[in-house]
Design goal:
The complex is a heterotrimer. Chain A is of the alpha+beta class. In chain A, 41% of the residues lie in helices and 19% in strands. In chain B, helix 3 packs across helix 9, helix 5 crosses helix 9 and helix 6 crosses helix 7. The chains are: A alpha+beta, B mainly alpha, C mainly alpha. Chains in contact: A-B, A-C, B-C. At the A-B interface, helix 1, strand 2, helix 2, helix 3 and helix 4 of A face helix 1, helix 6, helix 7, helix 8 and helix 16 of B.
């Protein structure tokens, strides 16, 4: 985390974006991220992102839920306070299946959503730098990180040639902070200016 | 490679008009940014009034006890549990649309899923009121939760279907809420980034959790939606299954029948879709969203209605037949005398149910009827009445003449406070829905954009290049080895 | 690249299917002399095997037509790449329907009252009460109508599909075509609902335990045979793929078939559990009597074995996306599921037939005879499907939705 310099290229068509991502990667630029208004299938592969293993986490949470239900009900009804209910055995598994199932789903769903929010740093009061406000409307925003080896002018030209309708350079915090969206906050003195090219 | 976007031109488009991405945003977000219309205010005020009447009815019940209702020794469950099952049933369509249809990749779900999910959540909220207040001493409601306590230690009864309900309904509510809200995040971010007003920026900034639209986040979001859909599918089945267990595990004639679980689920989907139709027909008119909730959508949903209505019909006939086939005198009496006999005290309700749920939806075999707004609206109301009576039939006609003829009771009619409670939940439901339609995007913006280039009218029009190609040539082009 | 549209039955395929049929006939003859000629109690064993196998395999191939009609009504496009395979399987409804008809009529006309106790209801108040439904005349008429309806409507669906071989279908004509096929598909489904989803399993299978009843029974039977039907389709698709046909079918299609197998295995379990749990919970003797020999008695081992391979195996193995896209795993699971549901229908039929009249004890008579007859039916399905595949082009390439299946992706 920290303040970095970025070159931002905006595309207005995903069919232009795909070849652009490919050529940008091929040319050796480092893609910080691509911001899109909707999910675009295959973009993660094009960017070389690895598959998410969120669903595996969900599976584990689910198993924990099943186990929690089974062990606690078993303990309660066979050890802690056995009751005769309608002449059924103390260990009446068929009657516990519904609750075991519900807890499986509950644990898996809640666990996964929390994990998702944690991984993506999503929470109320969280604020992030938005490279372009239309990234949630109709623009596909490709953000390249400027490293010591980057030649800014070349990169800008490269993006323009790749089909970007708008290119600019921004200095921004790449992490998150607690803040409000109705107030501009200066996180660091002397930075934060946007250079439109 | 970008995925080739193609869909057969034989199919009707799902987004009418010549839209681009920005236009989609404009159309769907505009109602949030504009002042609500007069129609909105009228509806909202009526809903709040109903809600207040409901609150007063509940206040009477809490203060003076269950005696405020006309339940009696024989009919221990009357309107309240009927309403409970009815609302839970309505709360099934949302998850069905968003989860099952997501897994079946039915593109048309994108136009209606957001509103249907919201409806689900509000319906489950309404449903929950009834068992809670039926407890009588509502301040003791937390007794239904299992936790170590000083009362014995007296645990809840894990073998009881009523407790399964506690788990099922609360899990269903939680998971539906998470599913709905995680889907809303990107759209709330859209509202935030468009906002001009300070309070709106602040509010939607807070609500959108700092969503940026990063590709990695989308990837995880897709995975999350898919797994939540996978989890919700058995969940939505389990909820009404467990509600049906409330009845079917008993030995009451007319209740103990093994087909109850799947048939309750089919009935729930049936009534849920009817309610979705009611709401969306109003929504598309009031908010001007006819391009997104098209006649095509209404047509498809009516098909689901005729399908589920017929499944329910098969189940009704199955129960009736097996009641005779089983040669159990009590079971047969419950069906023959308490229900099917039109001249028995509640016989009319059985035939009302049959008429509304099985016979009347059959008109949806005809396409003209399916795409007629007036007919659809009328039918959606009729089906909801029918499905209410289904639960009434199951509950009241099975118990008003129990095993002990001296306690038979045919004089059950609800008091004004019982009715008021029901009306109050309508108030709650519609108040929530009106607020939702004012402050949230009623259509999933990102999902519409996702299907736009495949299902949008203007994009589909351009697909005749592909359409006229022979299959071999198309195969050749799409499967050429990239070099 | 042109599409391989003409299937020729490979010699090996034909040899295998013919030898399987030979095994079936040999088993049938052997079984007849072993079991079919003795006293009437002993004959139950022979007829039980025939009713089990003929009804099971008939319902399975008919389930393929259910799949076609359901996807037609749902306006599905993805399954068109192997639509002709599903159609070819349903051709077997004709021979299997005739065989099942012969077996079922022979039972009733041959007065096999040890299988169908309701054939002699005299003195049994409950069976006398049921005789309005369970009587030979209604049984015969309804059975003929049921099987005849499947054959006729199924044939009509195949003919509607054959129209596509005549040449390209422009968009406007395509709309009309789609509409017409949905009309026939819904007619089939209505008949399906009135037979498979209600009366047929009651008459053919549930009435073996003539006193017992369950409203769920037919839906449960449907779930069992539908998931097996999907498995059969999957096996044929993968076989053709291995033979170099069906180049349009890729991992995405297999993935979706795998999803169907997974989902409907869970659905089957759901229906099984609902039926079992409600009967277990209410504990009414006239209902629990059904599960006594199955879950606790002689059939216990078989029952739980069947439960494991029909529920736990699909749940754990097919849950991962990777295994649904793996041809070997999917093939293995499809075979396992067919065996599992064959055993499921077995345990619907046989406990009602295998109670020793003297001791009252149950035994599991499963042996080579059942397996041999089953293999015979497998051979017949292979033979019929192979021939049907060779008769028409492998693709419905003029179907209005066909291009969607070419670019199908998950």
């Amino acid at each position: 985390m920290g303040v970095k310099k970025f070159i931002v290229g905006c595309f207005d068509n995903e069919d232009v974006l795909f070849p652009a991502v490919k050529s940008v990667r091929k040319a050796g630029y480092k893609i910080h991220d691509v911001y899109t208004p909707m999910p675009i299938h295959g973009l993660d592969h094009a960017m070389g992102l690895r598959e998410t293993s969120l669903h595996t986490a969900g599976f584990i949470y689910g198993i924990i839920g099943t186990t929690t239900a089974l062990t606690s009900i078993t303990w309660i009804f066979t050890r802690d306070w056995p009751l005769n209910i309608g002449g059924k055995p103390h260990f009446s598994l068929p009657a516990w299946i519904p609750i075991m199932f519900e807890l499986t789903v509950l644990f898996a769903a809640v666990g996964m959503v929390l994990t998702f929010c944690y991984l993506c740093q999503l929470a109320p009061f969280v604020k992030k730098h938005h490279f372009h406000l239309r990234a949630t409307d109709d623009l596909f925003v490709m953000v390249l990180e400027v490293t010591s080896k980057t030649n800014e002018a070349d990169t800008i030209n490269f993006l323009k040639k790749a089909g970007a309708v708008e290119v600019n350079v921004q200095v921004a915090e790449d992490g998150w902070w607690l803040g409000r969206y109705d107030k501009e906050q200066k996180l660091y003195q002397g930075h934060g200016e946007t250079v439109i090219v | 490679m970008a995925v080739l976007k193609y869909e057969s031109q034989t199919r009707d488009p799902l987004v009418d008009g010549h839209k681009d991405y920005h236009q989609v945003t404009e159309d769907i977000i505009r109602p949030i940014e504009a002042n609500p219309s007069r129609l909105w205010w009228i509806g909202f005020i009526i809903s709040v009034c109903l809600l207040l009447f409901g609150v007063y009815s509940v206040y009477r019940e809490v203060t003076y006890g269950i005696g405020q209702w006309n339940l009696n020794k024989t009919i221990g469950w009357g309107w309240d549990i009927t309403n409970f099952v009815w609302w839970v049933g309505i709360g099934h369509a949302g998850t069905l649309i968003s989860a099952i249809l997501l897994l079946f990749r039915q593109g048309w779900r994108t136009g209606v899923n957001r509103a249907a999910e919201a409806m689900t959540i509000f319906a489950v909220m309404c449903a929950g009121q009834f068992p809670i207040f039926h407890m009588g001493r509502v301040w003791m409601a937390f007794y239904v939760l299992p936790y170590p306590n000083t009362r014995g230690p007296l645990w809840v009864n894990f073998n009881s279907p009523l407790l399964w309900d506690v788990f099922a309904i609360s899990t269903y509510f939680t998971v539906s809420l998470l599913f709905w809200y995680s889907g809303l995040l990107p759209d709330l971010a859209t509202v935030r980034d468009r906002a001009k007003l300070k309070w709106r920026k602040r509010m939607y900034g807070l609500l959108s959790f700092g969503w940026t639209g990063s590709t990695k986040h989308w990837q995880r979001h897709e995975s999350l939606s898919l797994v939540l859909a996978g989890l919700s599918t058995p969940l939505v089945l389990s909820v009404h299954t467990i509600v049906s267990f409330d009845f079917a595990t008993s030995v009451i004639p007319g209740w103990h029948t093994t087909i109850f679980p799947p048939y309750f689920v089919a009935g729930a989907v049936f009534s849920g879709f009817a309610m979705v139709q009611t709401l969306l027909l109003i929504t598309r008119k009031v908010l001007g969203l006819k391009d997104y909730i098209t006649l095509n959508h209404i047509d498809v949903m009516n098909k689901v209605i005729v399908l589920t209505g017929s499944i329910v019909g098969v189940a009704y006939l199955t129960e009736l037949f097996i009641a005779w086939y089983g040669q159990n005198g009590y079971e047969w009496y419950a069906f023959k005398e308490n229900r099917a006999n039109l001249f028995s005290p509640y016989g009319w309700s059985y035939w009302l149910m049959m008429g509304c749920n099985v016979l009347s939806p059959q008109i949806f075999w005809i396409k003209k009827m399916r795409t007629n707004i007036t007919v659809t609206f009328f039918m959606s109301i009729l089906i909801n009445i029918g499905m209410w009576f289904e639960r009434f039939v199951i509950i009241v006609t099975s118990i008003y003449r129990d095993y002990l003829p001296s306690s038979w009771s045919t004089y059950y009619a609800p008091t004004i406070w019982e009715v008021g409670f029901y009306l109050g939940t309508f108030g709650l439901f519609f108040t929530c829905y009106f607020l939702f339609s004012k402050f949230f995007p009623v259509i999933a913006v990102a999902e519409i954009k996702h299907i736009l280039k495949k299902n949008g009218e203007s994009y589909k029009a351009k697909m005749d290049v592909i359409e006229n190609k022979p299959a071999e040539k198309f195969y050749e082009e799409t499967h050429a080895v990239p070099h | 690249m042109s599409l391989k549209e003409q299937f020729t039955v490979p010699g090996r395929f034909r040899t295998i299917s013919l030898s399987l049929m030979a095994i079936g006939i040999v088993s049938l003859v052997a079984g007849y002399f072993l079991y079919g000629t003795g006293d009437e109690h002993y004959q139950v064993r022979f007829w039980g095997t025939l009713i089990h196998n003929s009804v099971f395999f008939l319902l399975v191939v008919n389930a393929a037509m259910f799949f076609i009609c359901a996807t037609t009504l749902a306006m599905g496009g993805w399954q068109l790449a192997f639509r002709r395979v599903s159609e070819a399987i349903t051709v077997a409804v004709i021979p299997l329907g005739v065989i099942a008809l012969i077996v079922l009529l022979a039972l009733v006309l041959g007065h096999q009252h040890h299988i169908y106790h309701w054939l002699t209801p005299e003195g049994d108040k409950i069976l006398e009460g049921k005789s309005g439904f369970l009587n030979p005349r209604f049984y015969i008429i309804w059975t003929i109508l049921t099987i005849g309806g499947w054959i006729i409507l199924g044939r009509k669906m195949r003919l509607v599909s054959a129209e596509l071989d005549n040449g390209p279908v422009p968009v406007e004509q395509g709309r009309k075509y789609v509409f017409r096929s949905t009309v026939w598909a819904s007619l089939f489904l209505v008949w399906f609902a009135l037979t498979v989803l209600s009366t047929a399993p009651w008459l053919w299978l549930m009435s073996i335990d003539a006193h017992w009843y369950s409203t769920m029974f037919s839906w449960y039977t449907f779930a069992s045979t539908f998931v097996s039907g999907i498995a059969v389709m999957t096996l044929f698709v993968i076989y053709l793929k291995n033979q170099g046909y069906l180049e349009l079918v890729n991992r995405e299609h297999i993935h979706d078939l795998g999803k169907f197998m997974f989902a409907f295995s869970i659905f089957w379990t759901y229906l099984w559990f609902s039926q079992f749990m409600l009967i277990w919970y209410a504990n009414i003797p006239e209902e629990t009597v059904y599960f006594k020999p199955r879950v606790e008695g002689a059939f216990k081992g078989l029952f739980w074995f069947m439960f494991v391979i029909n529920f736990l195996a699909p749940l754990l193995i097919l849950m991962r996306a990777g295994s649904k896209r793996n041809y070997t795993t999917v093939t293995f699971m499809a075979i396992l599921i067919i065996i599992g549901h064959w055993l499921d229908v077995y345990q619907m039929v046989f406990p009602g037939l295998s109670q020793d009249p003297e001791t009252g004890k149950y035994h599991v008579p499963l042996n080579f005879f059942d397996i041999g007859v089953a293999l015979g039916f497998v051979g017949l399905i292979m033979y019929s499907t192979g021939n049907a595949l060779a008769k028409r082009p492998l693709y419905v390439k003029n179907h209005p939705f066909f291009k969607e299946t070419i670019i199908h992706h998950t």
